[in-house]
Amino acid sequence: MTWPIRLYLARHGRTAWNEVGRFQGCTDVPLDAVGRAQAAELAELLRGRVEAVISSDLLRARESAEIVCETLGVPLLALDADLRERGYGVFEGLTRHECMQKHPEIWAAREHDRNFQPPGGEPRALVLGRMQRGLLRAVQRLVGRHREALVVGHGSALRMFLELLSEAPVESIGNMHFREVQHDGSRFSLRTQG
After folding, report:
1. Are 184 and 14 in contact (CB under 8 A)?
2. Which sign does the torsion angle of CA 49, 53, 58, 60 carry?
3. What is the pLDDT of residues 35-79, one digit of tens each?
4. Cα 194 from Cα 192, distance rounded (Å)
5. Does the annotation count 12 as an active-site position?
6. Is 105 a catalytic residue?
7. Is beta strand 188-190 parallel, antiparallel or unpaired with respect to 178-183?
8. Which residues contact 119 (CB under 8 A, 6 or more apart)?
9. Reduced to 3 states, what is the DSSP secondary structure of residue 138?
10. What is the per-residue pLDDT for 109?
11. Which of 183, 181, 175, 190 is nearest to 61 (CA)?
12. Active-site option among 63, 66, 85, 92
């Protein structure tokens, strides 16, 4: 029996853009020294639980995944573009303060709805569709081989997926923090962290 499959969904480690509050979206930003240390800490926290790793293909997620794999001696099974962060359109590359200055009306709308789609940004439905595809592919890669894996992704995209599962707002996910989900062969569900 191969079910259920447990996934630890983690946000990548910190980057210099995270440190200053800059929207990264699909911009390929590397980890900073703190982010690399966070990835090593997460690996130790998950030691004995994670049998494999799957990651977004963006550099900050891939670097986080590679550190975990090296620390734990487990394989990196795939880099998947469907696990990327949401594209932020006109907000991408800007800090919140810069968004307020350059796009005050658009920012005001976002302040009332963190899932608001800024001009040029990726619609929530598209983010959810590709996240579901990417996570289902992750499960398919694991079936018959591994029971538990780390999936390294991005804050907003992971939060949106978790909100879909919980049908309720979900707190923002900190760098290298994780949430547990499982797949029972037919659907995903949230797991209570213990």
Report:
1. no
2. positive
3. 999 999 999 999 999 999 999 999 999 999 999 999 999 999 999
4. 6
5. yes
6. no
7. antiparallel
8. 89, 90, 106
9. helix
10. 92
11. 175
12. 85
